[in-house]
Amino acid sequence: MSSPDSTALPTDLAGWLARLEQQHPVSIELGLERVAAVAERMGLLDAPIAARLISVAGTNGKGSTVAMLEALARAHGLTTATYTSPHLLRYNERLRLDGVEADDDTLIAGFHAVETARLGGEPISLTYFEAGTLAALHSIAQHAPQLAILEVGLGGRLDAVNILDADVAMVTTVAQDHAAFLGTDIEQIGREKAGIMRTGRPAVLGSTTLPASVRQHAESLGAPLFALGEQVTRSEPDANGEWQWRGSIAAHTADNPPRLDHLPDPGLPLDNAASALQALALAGIALDAERCRQGLAEVQLAGRMQWLGNWCLDVAHNPHAAHYVARRLDARGCAGTRYALFGMLADKDASGVVVELAGQVDAWVTVSLEGERARSAAALAETLTASGQPLAHCADSVAAGVAWLNEHLGGDDQVLVCGSFFTVAEALGEWQAGRLIESPVVAQPSVAQPSVAEDASTRDKEGSA
Questions:
Q1: pLDDT exceeds 70 at position 256
Q2: Where in the numbering of this chain does the Mur ligase C-terminal domain appear (predicted)?
Q3: Could you report the per-residue pLDDT of 182-228, keeping only the tens digit for each?
Q4: Where are the alpha helices (DSSP H) in 303-448?
């Protein structure tokens, strides 16, 4: 039987994704030596891939920060490229060029370039995520945007994205997650996240509760710090939902800081919005108030407090993210029963998530997920019972859970779909197929979604779900 390296190269995206799954013995292997060697062969380290580069690391909030950076930059007329992971429905979601998902041909060209370089000397084995990252960087370099925004996958210092030097580094939040790879020492996790920072280049700290190690690492590098609550501040929304931002850049004095007023609520964490504005200012973008309002009003991000009628979809899969979701649900209220359609992977802190959401959920519907890291609905039910939470139903799948809820929901009831990217992705698939019934009583504007593709099995090769 021939090895993957000696077989004919695929001609379609599904074939490439299947090939990438098979060419490395483990799905996650932190380290930069292999990926940097292939990047050097590809010429990705010879020159910047974009005029400006912002990298975003953190436990939670990366996706929303990237989405707001992109929307704000595009509102200012910049050409952009963004790279994120994991995807929900289609691998194409991971790479966006000028606000549009990359088409199959663009992705395939990137994979082909990676494979040519990988086998262009002594063969170098790459993980699924590493190959995908290099392919995305190749496509971005070909596009040559005015601003590239890269979401760091798992960790920071040893993540494949970190082979490039960002002009501005951002750390959104630091909390425990991926303990098998990052450990449980919060200070060490902070040091890993801060590993994306560079000597003398600005770093934005997007939370007021980051571990001390993040700041210490920045200071050891001489990286100028712009921290939320210090150089960067924001107000709470007023009665009209508007808020104010104050930032800091060298062109302004302490007595005359850059400021933006009457900003709309983007429906995403305002700490991330404030940090995104600061990062753009540090990247040399002259912030225009009206264009900032436009960008924040138009930003969209699937699976983050996304309302489809009376169904709320959020990929929260750790206690820190669940805490944010609970606060948003509390502010919204519910006139009927609020259910949680709950599916999590076995290596996630289900008990911690339940504790955070307990005050906002009246009844739980547990669902089983598939795959090597799956956790059954019955196991989740045991977690709920141990926490004294009311279990409404156990379902063998997300689809079965959606079907049960469709039969039991009243007009004033709500459903929170959460616990994993897998859970939300499958619920979105049910919605697109017309099997998730939205209540007309409390319908809300929904985010436009991409089409369903056949690559769902490859969604979680980085362990983020």
A1: no
A2: 303-421
A3: 557 889 899 999 999 999 999 999 999 999 999 999 999 999 999 99
A4: 319-332, 350-357, 377-386, 398-408, 421-432
Token pair recorded at residue 419: 């616990």
100 C-beta neighbours (distance < 10 Å), count: 9
For residues 457 and 460, what is the distance between their CA atoms, to the nearest angstrom? 8
In the chain, where does the domain assigned CATH 3.40.1190.10 lie?
4-298
CA angle (100 as vertex; 94, 102 as ends), nearest 5: 50
Which class would CATH give 306-449? alpha beta
| Structure confidence by residue, pLDDT tens digits, 10-51 | 999 999 999 998 876 555 566 799 999 999 999 999 999 999
Which residues of the chain does CATH 3.90.190.20 include?
A: 306-449
DSSP state of 345: B
d(CA 303, CA 423): 10
Roughly how many angstroms between the first and final C-alpha of the chain, as a whole number?
33
- Gap between the Cα atoms of 131 and 312, Å rounded: 33
CA 137, CA 110: separation in Å to the nearest integer?
Answer: 8
Chosen CATH of 4-298 out of 2.60.40.420, 3.40.1190.10, 3.10.20.30, 3.40.50.1970: 3.40.1190.10
CB neighbour list of residue 392: distance below 8 Å, 6 or more residues apart: 339, 363, 364, 365, 408
SS3 287: coil
CA distances from 51 to 73, 167, 186, 198, 302 (A): 13, 9, 34, 17, 28
Radius of gyration of the chain from Cα atoms?
A: 22
